[in-house]
Amino acid sequence: MSLLTAATVLTGCSSTVSDAKITMATGSEGGVYYSLGNGLADIWSGRLGIVRPQVVRTDGSKDNVRRLVNDQAQVGFSQADALEGVEGAYRLRALARMHDDYLQIIVRADLPVTKLRELSGLRVSIGATGSGVEIIASRLLQAENVTPQAVNLGLDDSAQQMQEGKLDAFFWSGGLPTSRITALTKGLGVRMLDLKDELPQFRQQFPVYGSATLPASIYNLQSGPVITLVVRNFLLVHESMPDDVAEALLRQLFEAQPELVKAHSAARTIEQRSAIETSPVPLHNGAMRYYRDAKV
């Protein structure tokens, strides 16, 4: 059965919250989207009395946006830069700004690679096709004229191929920590690339991105902390979602935030005041109603 027929689309259903049937587009199994998606599914089913949302593994942000546009999902995670160029994306709305994703460029420690430009000619995964990782990696490599032997692999396959010696480096963009990378660092010597030299000019070209320090303690990196790129994450729905459903989903996200933190520590950084900062994606009317009631 296809995902479209398996999921009951909220459009056209009763706006009664308890009637809502939700499919949630997340990401790879080892990533933060997937962990938070399962956490939200438990919260919403337990607190709202709805059928537990179906949490779907996907190729990431761009894939999630397309699924939302095509009614193959009713809720999805996306990086702020992933809606560009997707037909129909203008009809999507945000419930909240979630955690920020950190770009993580992982390189085998036995290679003499410490700079982005040194990836030229190496076997490098730039993320799954249609993912937010691919968007960032492609933009960054092109801006710096770096030409690796690029392949499109998701997080799990990238980590596996690096362990097998088939990959020299890979890009990943996710919350901290990402469990699959934590597992990789325990079994294989790796380092992360520092982007302090590249980011000032790159951010002038792409102001949607920020910069931040990735602490060495996150993955017990021997190479120390690194300066890297960060991008905002949004929780998205279609504009046609009934206002009371959108408001209820968002309200439970914040009221049950301690439970969501148990699903992944990245949820600790979600705050009401910053959650409304979803430009260029408009807030859903139901979300606006919640934030007004919360006096944000």
From TrEMBL:
Gene3D superfamilies: Periplasmic binding protein-like II (3.40.190.10). This is TRAP transporter solute receptor, TAXI family. SUPFAM superfamilies: Periplasmic binding protein-like II (SSF53850). It comes from Lentzea albidocapillata. Pfam families: NMT1_3. It comes from the Bacteria. InterPro entries: TRAP_TAXI. Transmembrane segments: none annotated. The lineage of its organism: Bacteria, Bacillati, Actinomycetota, Actinomycetes, Pseudonocardiales.
